[in-house]
Amino acid sequence: MQLVDDDEVYEVDQDYLGPPGRYIGRFKYRSLMVFPVLFILATIAARQLGVGLGLFSLAWTGVLAAWVTRQVISRVTYERPLGSLFATFWHELSAPRLPRRPDGRSGVRPVKVRRTT
Asked: How many CB atoms lie under 10 A from the CB of residue 34?
């Protein structure tokens, strides 16, 4: 088990404070690599869905990518790296499921409950 260091210098080292002389906000160094990938994937997905390539659509794509980046980075720690998060996501998608019946319902039948009182 790894304990979190409460040293203030260590906390600052994890955050990017912007270029020298300018403050653009604090964000984690990990998000510098995640956001561009998510932004490009979101832009490709928007183009495949037929959304035009304009300033408004790019702005909303950026907002969506920033939100997803924030959600992903909030779940990444030293004990759970980014790769394991994506592996878990992939395993959840590709897990075997019960076969569906022809009428669209799942293969499990509901259990009949008897009243005993």
From this structure: 18
